[in-house]
Sequence to fold (243 residues):
Amino acid sequence: MKKILVANWKMNPTTLSEVAKLISGLNKIQPKEDVEVVICPSFVHLPLIKSQFSLGAQDVFIGESGAFTGEVSSVMLKKLGVQYVIIGHSERRINLGESDELIARKVEGVLRNKLQPILCVGESGAIRKKGFLMSKNFVLQQLKKDLSLIKSDQWKKVIVAYEPIWAISTMPDAKPDSPEEAAKMISEIKKITNGRVLYGGSVNAKNAASFLEQSEIDGALVGGASLKVEEFKKIITSANLKK
Ligand code: PGA
Fold:
């Protein structure tokens, strides 16, 4: 099974010329046959990305069209060639107050429109301090809430990204999870969904291989390091089993 690397550019870069430079750098990377790379720029940059890699969006709205000022639908994304959609990123849960109820509707809508949801789940640092068991209970409950509007035999169609919030590189005192603990959490998630699960949180060129060599970990969601061409190139090489 191919490893999946999702480049989450977040609200970067800010100028069109920087976007053009980044994508032309990424297009020079030799494609690797057993790695699926997904580039997720901001909505406004999606139509500009002509790339050898797959295209993903960082969010979506639940409706298909109509009176939803400022929102973007699955239908619109599909017309731009988008195949993947990140849903429920912790930055949206925290900064925009996205609830599990809304996220569940997004997951359902994205699947119905035949796009590939990448559902982000993960515990806060405060929960992690209470131990792995508490963290596991939190993550699995969050997961079940976010999948509640689709039948359980469809759960395997959702790619889950386990992203412990405290490990995301922009959090104060962030540090990556250990590959073993991440793999342990991911195998718990897989017992529920039976589908593919990625790890995200401070993945970089130095540590990518240690996560990707874990058989339970199907790939990585990469934020900061995906904005640096050389760094991301090394991460792609780490994911390539044939190297
Ligand atoms: P990071 O971000 O790789 O910069 O930690 C990951 C994410 O938030 O998706």
About this structure: The longest helix spans residues 132-146.
